[in-house]
């Protein structure tokens, strides 16, 4: 190889190295991302009910990832563990996250040149009748052996690849937050279905107890009727009350079966193969610090997903702006060609070429301008989506804080109503047995007591479900620091 060739190769190598360095660390056109301001307040409007909830102190932590363990129900814990293993919706979200993370590697590949090799063997015959053929010297039949390599690289001079990688990473982080949000929603839905089912078990236990009491009342009415103390109307009323309570107990089974089927689907088993033995609601209300509103920006996966999509939309602006600048492509081709296998891979058979090209679009009828405007408009739309997600999160927390506060007051008032109804029924029974009043008074007192006891059970169930919904509204122990995307 002569000195002039070495000089040309050395100069081209220096150009390539400089282009590579500038492509990796050069400028990136378009706006750099900065998270926009979001609406907020210094504190939540609703205050936690005394003795059940508290505001966060600096030393307080948030609920853990397995927040359902706060309720102290071993069967619920076992069911929740099955979601991470068998729930098909969660598996779908996991696959979508992994695909989004793979897209980062796809985008990063554009940093590097593409290399290819193409070996070939061909047998060639030239026409003897072609013009300007030198019959004395031309060989019309020959074999061509070729081993050719190609390399092509487009330096990232304007940051288009970097913005594409930035966009892919933000999309993957948004998908990771989506996955966390799906998991949070599924675990919360299972807890809600479970506690609602247990609330129905409480209702069924109450109705069964009332049914046994009504059976005694019916038997008493029949005895008094046979003894001539009561009339047939008392027996009919007692029998009606007994059958009505029995029907209510049967009706509870409809909703219970539906919740049982929903739980089976959530843990990934056929509904026909799953059953939960009846057990009344016995969950305790956990103590969880709701913290301050600004923490929701880091604790809600749906907010994190909206914010990461905002970053991706910002990167798209840079990608659109980069289209205004020229594309520069460096290429190289080299290899060996020979008509004989014996000297195919020798130095005299070597050939190569190096080149560079640039392409600048001069007229596209406003296409690049329109794409840039579109990217900016989509970014503004994503800003509004992000801020709306923050507002919705604040509403979720306020709704459930108020529900817990109001239901705590209602539970106290309802407990007093139940106690009063029980005393009223006891007095009515005494009056009826003493012959002072008719059975209608007893029947009325029974109906009022049952209604109040069922309301009390319903309030207890609603308090537990409201606490689950509050934990979900607070992010369920998740933080944005858990987002990872390579």
Structure at a glance:
Helix content is about 60%, strand content about 10%. By secondary structure, the chain is of the alpha+beta class.
Rg, Cα atoms, Å: 39 Å
Q: How many β-strand runs?
A: 4
Instruction: Tell me the number of helical segments per DSSP (H or I, 4 or more residues long).
Output: 9
Strand order of the largest sheet: 1-2-3-4
> Any idea how many domains?
2
Sketch the major β-sheet: 4 strands, antiparallel
CATH-defined fold name of the largest domain:
Outer membrane efflux proteins (OEP)
The appropriate CATH architecture of the largest domain is Up-down Bundle
Shape: elongated
CATH class of the largest domain: Mainly Alpha
Distance between the termini: 45 Å
Structural class: alpha+beta
Task: Give the full name of the CATH homologous superfamily of the largest domain.
Answer: Outer membrane efflux proteins (OEP)
β-strand percent reads 5-15%
Order of SSEs: HHHEEHHHHEEHH
What would you note in describing this structure?
By secondary structure, the chain is α+β, with helices and mostly antiparallel strands. It has 2 domains: 94 residues, Outer membrane efflux proteins (OEP), CATH 2.20.200.10; 360 residues, Up-down Bundle (Outer membrane efflux proteins (OEP)), CATH 1.20.1600.10. Strands 1-2-3-4 form a 4-stranded antiparallel β-sheet, with no helix packed on it. Helix 3 runs antiparallel to helix 4, helix 5 runs parallel beside helix 9 and helix 7 packs antiparallel against helix 8.
